[in-house]
Amino acid sequence: MTLVNEKARILANACVGPRLWLMELEAPAIAATVEPGQFVHMRVPLMPERILRRPFSIYARDVQAGTVEVLYQVVGAGTDHMTTLREDLACELMGPVGRGWQPPASARRALLVGGGVGAAPLFMLAEQLVGAGVRTDVVLGAQTESALACRGRYEELLATGASCGCAGARCATDDGSFGRAGFCTSLVEEALAEADAAGEPYDYVAVCGPEPLMRIVAGMAAQSGVPCEVSMEKRMACGIGACLSCVVDTRAGKKRSCVDGPVFPAEELMW
Ligand SMILES: Cc1cc2nc3c(=O)[nH]c(=O)nc-3n(C[C@H](O)[C@H](O)[C@H](O)COP(=O)(O)OP(=O)(O)OC[C@H]3O[C@@H](n4cnc5c(N)ncnc54)[C@H](O)[C@@H]3O)c2cc1C
Ligand code: FES
User: Fold this and answer.
1) What is the pLDDT of residue 1?
2) Each residue of 92-108: pLDDT tens digit?
3) How far is the CA of 200 from the centre of ligand 2 (A)?
4) What does the pLDDT look like over 249-260, one tens digit per residue?
5) Whole-number Cα distances in Å, 116 to 124, 143, 161
6) Which of 1, 107, 134, 267 is most buried, with most CB under 10 Å away?
7) Cα–Cα distance between 66 and 63 in angstroms, integer?
8) Which ligand is nearest to the CA of 75?
9) What are the chain's domains?
10) What DSSP letter does each residue of the chain carry, written as one string?
11) For residue 12, how far is its CA from the centre of ligand 1 (angstroms)?
12) Distance (Å, rounded) from C-alpha 43 to C-alpha 53?
């Protein structure tokens, strides 16, 4: 995989939920090579006073059209400024960066868990698994119904996998405005138990979202004896493995989440 620095033209940048924006960019080189779970390091244009790039996972790509999409949440100066960027502006993207999801080749049934904006880095993985005929279940959690910004795409994708046993996404919202009221961890617990009871246990769990959610889901997967991967969101500066600002403690020592991750096998992490 080759890392490129691509001048990507912004094709669209629209608000799709509370503090949630979807940006589509023309980036044919990155679109052609990005793997599920990898990210781009973006130099936010027209913001010269802030030189650090911002890391964003690729939510979706279209190889034919040469485009990628990033779903971003407004949390600080950089992401706030991104909402002002208009179509046709060029944006420097370095990517694709990092180790993405690596489901076992033998996986027959997978459970993907996305909390908040963490649903986005799992979508290409879901496409890969459903495309390979893996029975894939999806649990999504968010604060409100309107924050479940990826739900429509997941539902469309899972409908294409109905013949392999894929069912609709299970959702939870903190305020009960859609699906189960409360945290999505109860849905994960149920999904694991139901799969075991049906004699069709999961053989892969992938989770992305706030760290407490990932820790709980990783614990549940471990208790059920299912291999689990998590995507770590550490603050990053260089994005190429040089500055050590993004290290995580693992059983094999310190690892850089920009190049050794962001996806790690959960059992390797010392949380
Ligand atoms: C591998 C990876 C993938 C990510 N994918 C997404 C995504 O798909 N959608 C999304 O909304 N967010 C994603 N994030 C988080 C996103 O990078 C931060 O929310 C964003 O950088 C915040 O920038 P800011 O200028 O608004 O915030 P500020 O707090 O003003 O940022 C200041 C500095 O800290 C860094 N920083 C701040 N928060 C984070 C963070 N959580 N992770 C890494 N660096 C941070 C920024 O890059 C910047 O250099 C991802 C983070 C990582 C590490
Ligand atoms: S961000 Fe510099 S080593 Fe990871």
Assistant:
1) 63
2) 999 999 999 999 999 99
3) 40
4) 999 999 999 999
5) 16, 7, 24
6) 134
7) 5
8) 1
9) 4-97 (2.40.30.10), 109-232 (3.40.50.80)
10) ---EEEEEEEEEEEEEETTEEEEEEE-HHHHHH--TT-EEEEE-TT-TT----EEEE--EEETTTTEEEEEEE--SHHHHHHTT--TT-EEEEEEEESB-----TT--EEEEEEEGGGGGGGHHHHHHHHHTT-EEEEEEEESSGGG-TTHHHHHHHHHHTGGGT--PPEEEETTSSSSEES-THHHHHHHHHHHHHTT---SEEEEESSHHHHHHHHHHHHHTT--EEEE-----SSSSSSS-TTEEEETTEEEETTTT-BEEEGGGB--
11) 20
12) 5
* Whole-model pTM over 0.85: yes
Contacts (Cβ under 8 Å, ≥6 apart) of 212 = none
